[in-house]
Design a protein that fits this description.
There is one protein chain. The chain has six helices and six strands. By secondary structure, the chain is α/β, with parallel strands linked by helices. The protein has a six-stranded parallel beta sheet with strand order 2-1-3-4-5-6, with helices on both faces. Helix 3 packs across helix 4. InterPro entries: AB_hydrolase_fold, Dienelactn_hydro, Dienelactone_hydrolase-like. This is Dienelactone hydrolase. Keywords: Hydrolase.
C-alpha cells in the first residue's frame, strides 16, 4: 500500500489527528505522524498560532522537512491546515513524491516553484464557508487548473479543522466523505 507522511495542524498532534491517521492505517497504508510541537497541543487556533509564532514558522517547517529525510522519497505528503505548508512544499520540491493531500489549506504553487510537478497527483479539501480556506480557495482553483491530476473538493459548512474528531469543529459526515476520497486517492497512487 501507500506510505504517507501526515503533518498536523496548528493545534498539534491531537487525538483527532492520530485517529485520522489510524483510519488510513486501517485501510492498509503506512502513515507517519511527526510531532512538530514536541508533545504540545492547544485548545484553540489562537493558542496554537501563538506557539507557532514563538517557536518560529521556519523552525517548525525545518522539523517537518527533517522528518521526511528519515524516510524514503516515494511518499504521499499530507497536511492538515498548518501542516499543508510543509506537505505542499515537499510534494513540489522533493523528487520522488507520489502525491499530495492538502486539507483545510492550499498555498499558491508559485510559493515553492514555477509549476506543480508533472506526475504528482494532488487532492485539496476544505469547507466553503471556512474563513481560512476561503483565503486559499483561489490558490486551490489555480492549482487544479494548472495540473492534470489535481482535484478540489469543497464541502458545505464553515468549520476549519472538520476532520479532527477531538475538536468542536469536527463534522462526522464531511470527514467520512473526505476519508473515502482520500482512501480512493491513496489506492490509486
Amino acid at each position: 500500500m501507500t506510505e504517507v507522511l501526515l503533518y498536523h495542524h496548528v493545534q498539534g498532534l491531537t487525538d483527532g489527528v492520530r485517529a485520522f491517521a489510524d483510519d488510513l492505517r486501517q485501510a492498509g497504508h503506512t502513515v507517519h505522524t511527526p510531532d512538530l510541537f514536541e508533545g504540545r497541543t492547544f485548545g484553540s487556533l489562537e493558542e496554537g498560532m501563538g506557539f507557532v509564532r514563538e517557536a518560529g514558522f521556519d523552525t517548525l517547517r525545518e522539523r517537518g522537512a527533517a522528518a521526511a529525510e528519515d524516510l524514503g522519497p516515494e511518499l504521499v505528503y499530507a497536511g492538515l491546515s498548518f501542516g499543508v505548508t510543509i506537505a505542499q512544499k515537499l510534494a513540489q520540491t522533493r523528487p520522488g513524491a507520489r502525491g499530495a493531500l492538502l486539507m483545510h489549506s492550499c498555498i499558491p504553487v508559485s510559493e515553492y516553484g514555477e509549476s506543480w510537478p508533472d506526475g504528482v497527483p494532488v487532492q485539496i479539501h476544505g469547507k466553503e464557508g471556512d474563513e481560512f480556506f476561503d483565503e486559499d480557495l483561489p490558490a486551490a482553483r489555480e492549482l487544479v487548473k494548472s495540473a492534470p491530476a489535481a482535484e478540489l473538493f469543497v464541502y458545505p459548512g464553515e468549520q476549519h479543522l472538520f476532520t479532527d474528531a477531538s475538536l468542536e469543529a469536527f463534522d462526522a459526515e464531511a470527514s467520512e466523505l473526505l476519508l473515502e476520497r482520500v482512501r480512493t486517492f491513496l489506492a490509486s497512487v
